[in-house]
Amino acid sequence: MKDETLAHAHTAPLEWKRSDGLVGYDEALAFMEARATAIAAGEAPECLWFLEHPPLYTAGTSARAEDLRAPDRFPVHQTRRGGQFTYHGPGQRVVYVMLDLNRRGRDVRRFVQSLEAWVIAALAEFNVTGEIRDGRVGVWVARPEKPLTATGLPAEDKVAAIGIRLRKWVSFHGISINVDPDLSHFDGIVPCGINDFGVTSLVDLGLPVTMEDLDLALERTFPQVFEG
After folding, report:
1. What are the φ/ψ torsions at residue 40 (nearest 5 degrees)?
2. What pLDDT digit, counting tens, does each position of 59-105 carry?
3. Residue-level pLDDT at 221
């Protein structure tokens, strides 16, 4: 695995870090916890870490046991981030967001909304309209070409998940955006506890987007949301 600093024009202190290859979940968690502690102590800059994980499921603080449909399929990691069950795996861009809300405003709701707005702005670079839904965490895309759901609602698919944790007002965990993961891997859980809607990816939407394309879009749009 090789780490590198992404080229960017943002002002310090903010480290943009990208890891090539697959990063183990425990390794990532240890890094995030140590970095969040260092940021809170004023000993390290904020950090955005771009990576991919091997196939695994994570359980947030609201996870329900019955939502883990295939407990033996992939490793399951208990985590103290908000949310329910999520899947991570190759082809999914995970961005761990270690930002200091002591200087960005101690407003958790606003911070989550900013993360959602960042994802939506990046998706718009590919002419994908990401949307937020009350009561459903994450970013969604309308699928009018699909049949109505079992409850009669228009079909929508989730393209990005969001789950954070704060320690001393420093965030960690973050966002995941589906570029081209194996969507069948989501079948082992009820993603985020939602049965009525599906999961999609940029490639599933018909867009030949690479991980590097998405990274550049996230870099371009970050200042619009967090530095405006």
Report:
1. -60, -30
2. 988 888 899 999 999 999 998 887 888 999 999 999 999 999 999 99
3. 97
Nearest Cα neighbor of 179 from 116, 91, 96 is 91
Mean pLDDT, residues 148-169: 90
Based on the residue annotation, tell me whether 192 is a catalytic residue of this protein.
yes
Distance from C-alpha of 56 to C-alpha of 16, rounded to nearest angstrom: 24
Nearest Cα residue to 62 out of 193, 214, 221: 193
Tell whether the model's pLDDT for residue 4 goes beyond 60: no
Of the candidates 161, 189, 192, 209, the residue annotated as catalytic is 192
Give the residue-averaged pLDDT of 25-49: 97
In order, the DSSP letters of 16-36 are: EEEEEEEPPHHHHHHHHHHHH
Of 194, 219, 80, residue with least CA distance to 138 = 194
Q: Count the Cβ atoms, other than its own, within 10 Å of residue 9.
A: 7
3-state secondary structure of 114: helix
Q: Is 110 helix (H, G, I), strand (E, B) or coil?
A: helix
pTM of the model: 0.91
* Beta strand 170-178 pairing with 156-167: antiparallel
